[in-house]
Amino acid sequence: MYLPPHFNRSDDRALAVAIMRENSFASLISNDDEGFPYVSHLPLHVQERENGDIVLLGHCAKPNPHWKYLAARPKALVTFMGPHAYMSPSVYPDLARVPTWNYLAVHCQVEATPIEGDDNTDAMLKCLIGDNEPAYAEQWRGLGEEYAHKMMKGISGFELRVTALQCKVKINQHRKESHAALYSQYSQGTADEQALAAWMKRLGLNVQADSDSNSNSTTAE
User: Fold this and answer.
1) pLDDT single digits (tens) 10-36
2) How far apart are CA 35 and CA 134, in angstroms?
3) At what angle do helices 118-132 and 145-153 cross, to 10 degrees?
4) CB distance 207 to 180 below 8 Å
């Protein structure tokens, strides 16, 4: 991933983990048997281990050959896309500006290990249930051992140990003169735009408009 210095936050592990957990529907990318990139879109549970490892837990359907590709070639890439949105040049106090796109993203190099056995598969599924619908755990337990066993036979679980990660946060943080107007636009916009506005505050950007930014923010409309 292209990481210019002013957007590179790969050294901030807590930030990367937060983005991953809040945007856990990821893209798992491997090579197929012909060497062509193969992508599966799937939810992943992000787990931080006591030894410092970050591990991603997930599964795919048995008919999906991705689990076979991981078994043959364990090294893979996982990408997480956070909120993203268009940025209008109208947020600048001067006209000599162009549009851009703001976004949050994390890329993880991983090494895959299969999850085998009903107990381990059940534990992985309960992690995903806990992330997405904790109340369903009781219903899952109530389905009965035979039915649960049948369902688990239809999937292939895997553990993806993160060996390296890159985190990119691009919210125009290098252009302080745009922050107040950009925050004002995003906080009134789409769900993605509102999420980016919230991240601007989380990152400590100065989003408070002063008299100068108020008077200049609309000159490029």
Assistant:
1) 578 999 999 999 999 999 999 999 999
2) 39
3) 90
4) yes
Task: Give the DSSP per-residue string, the chain.
Answer: ----TTTB-TT-HHHHHHHHHHT-EEEEEEE-TTS-EEEEEEE-EEEE-TTS-EEEEEEEETTSTHHHHHHH--EEEEEEEEEEEEE-GGGSSSSS---EEEEEEEEEEEEEEEE-SHHHHHHHHHHHHHHH-TTHHHHHHTT-HHHHHHHHHTEEEEEEEEEEEEEEEESSTT-GGGHHHHHHHHHTS-HHHHHHHHHHHHTT------HHHHHHTTTT-
Q: How far is the C-alpha of 220 from the C-alpha of 54, rounded, in Å?
A: 45
Q: Cα dist. 143→70, 75, 148, 156 in Å?
A: 30, 35, 6, 20
Evaluate whether 104 touches 83 at the Cβ level (below 8 Å).
Answer: yes
Structure tokens at 79: 């990408």
What are residue 219's phi and psi, to 5 degrees?
A: -70, -20
Q: What is the pLDDT of residues 172-213, one digit of tens each?
A: 998 999 999 999 999 999 999 999 999 999 999 988 876 444
Task: Give the count of alpha carbons within 13 A of 203, CB side only.
Answer: 27
